[in-house]
Amino acid sequence: MVFRSSFVTVLGGAVLAFIEWLPTLWPAAAWGLFVAFSLGMQILYPRLIAPLFNDFDPVDAGEVREAVEDVFERAGFETSDIYTMDASRRSSHLNAYFVGFGRTKRVVLFDTLVEKMALPELQSVLAHELAHWKEAHIWKQFAASAVQMGIVFAVLGWLVDFEPLYVAFGIPVTATYAGLLLAGLIVGPLLQSTAPLSNKLSLAHEREADDYAAEIMNPDPMIDALGQLAGENLANPFPHPWYATFHYSHPPIPERIRRLQKRGDGDTSDGPADNTEDIAPGAD
Questions:
Q1: What integer is the mean pLDDT of 120-145?
Q2: Percent of residues, the chain, with pLDDT higher than 70
Q3: 23, part of any domain
Q4: Domain that holds residue 4
Q5: For the chain, what is the domain count?
Q6: N or C, fewer C-beta in 10 Å, the chain?
């Protein structure tokens, strides 16, 4: 939240400066800054910024390390750096993530994940997250976000120069900063209306990652992990379909469990889950 607010402040100040310095090219300059900043955070945050707020401890030789290495070996990747992060100091969220390029990754396990999940379930969560790297989901979504923001800045640029906007609010046409504020108020809801498109891409990636985890490990541990994640992460298992369309980047847990159960039974169809399906207590 702090970084998001800081980013909005920096980007907003930069946009105002670009409008002053580059009156016709500022949308392109602002878009370039957004892409550069987002890429920089993607690369630098895990190694330089995250350690400022959490402690990272190497995972010594033992069953947890062996379990992680087993997943990587099955996936055809390598890792020598495996860490636990003290996520429990702020949250009960269960998760893991990877840092690195090529086939060598640095693994970070939330301490909550290690403490609350059995090893097969932990391995399934790792396999799911590893699928996002293997299939380049992170970079595909980064590219989609860059395209989306390019359109946003193009629309902002058009609205800032749209004289009827100023006339409608009784603002002098020369009051460019006020025009930018009004344009932002218009673009915000328009951007929200495109959420189903970006969510659709994310949903497809999540299903692909679930399938990969089931393929290299086994559907049953992933099903158990999803059930536990639903409880620990306090996810709503039965959102209203319209709400989910605009706000859910992951399929509802019962749908994911149903797909994995069908996969275990030899049925690979992608139909939505029956929301009357119970979920066992007990990972994303």
A1: 92
A2: 88
A3: yes
A4: 1-53
A5: 1
A6: N
Sign of the CA dihedral running 97, 59, 50, 118:
positive
Catalytic residue among 121, 129, 232, 284: 129
Q: Is 115 a catalytic residue?
A: no
* Cα distances (Å, whole numbers) of residue 25 to 108, 132, 153, 158, 174: 41, 35, 11, 11, 17
In a domain, 24, yes or no: yes
Mean pLDDT, residues 170-193: 87
Higher pLDDT, 35 or 14: 35
With 0-12 CB in 10 A as exposed, 13-18 as middle and 19+ as buried, what is 85?
Answer: buried
Mean pLDDT of 98-117: 81
Q: Over the stretch 53-70, which tens digit does the pLDDT of each residue have?
A: 889 999 988 999 999 999
Partners of 96 in the beta sheet? 109
Residues 6+ apart with CB under 8 A from 14: 30, 33
Identify whether 226 is part of a domain: no
Q: What are phi and psi of 48, to 5 degrees?
A: -110, -35
Crossing angle for the helix pair 195-216 and 253-264, to the nearest 10 degrees: 40
Q: Which of 121, 206, 210, 284 is catalytic?
A: 210
Q: Say which residues have a Cβ less than 8 Å from residue 54's Cβ, sequence separation at least 6.
A: 85, 86, 87, 89
Does residue 78 fall inside a structural domain? no
Q: Is-catalytic flag, 129?
A: yes
Helix (H, G, I), strand (E, B) or coil at 269: coil
Tell me the mean pLDDT in the region 217-235. Answer: 84
Tokens of 119: 């090893």
Q: Token pair of 46, please?
A: 């895990």
